[in-house]
Specification:
This protein is an all-alpha fold. It has 6 helices and no strands.
């Protein structure tokens, strides 16, 4: 009877040791990151407007000129590119995110901010 108990104990030890030495799988990286970044949002919104979605906001004449120029640039460069698989588009988003963190947004992009904020507020 003591032999059976000791065998059971050894078997439990063996199981415990094998479980302890098993590797724990690292968690999978997140599929996407949720963020609220003015410059990334502006980039996506300009692309959508360049693809034909109307932007309904009342702009001053100067703001309208700036906005139309930005939309024309996006229509020529970004409107038909894939946001998820085009490395160039992903690079734009990464640059915008890094620039936000560093506080170094270009003056050209900064000019589009007031018209975009008016659209956001409406």
């Amino acid at each position: 009877m003591i032999t059976n108990v000791s065998r059971g104990f050894r078997g439990s030890q063996s199981l415990a040791l094998s479980c302890a030495s098993a590797r724990v799988a690292s968690p999978a990286p997140p599929l996407f990151a949720i963020q609220s970044d003015l410059w990334v949002n502006l980039h996506h919104f300009l692309r959508v407007v360049a693809r034909g979605e109307p932007a309904r906001a009342t702009l001053t004449a100067d703001e309208q000129v700036i906005w139309d120029a930005a939309v024309a640039t996006y229509k020529a460069k970004y409107a038909n590119r894939d946001l998820l698989r085009d490395e160039g588009m992903l690079a734009v988003i990464r640059r915008r995110s890094r620039a936000t963190a560093a506080g170094s947004i270009s003056s050209r992009v900064r000019l589009c901010s007031p018209p975009f904020r008016k659209w956001e507020a409406s």
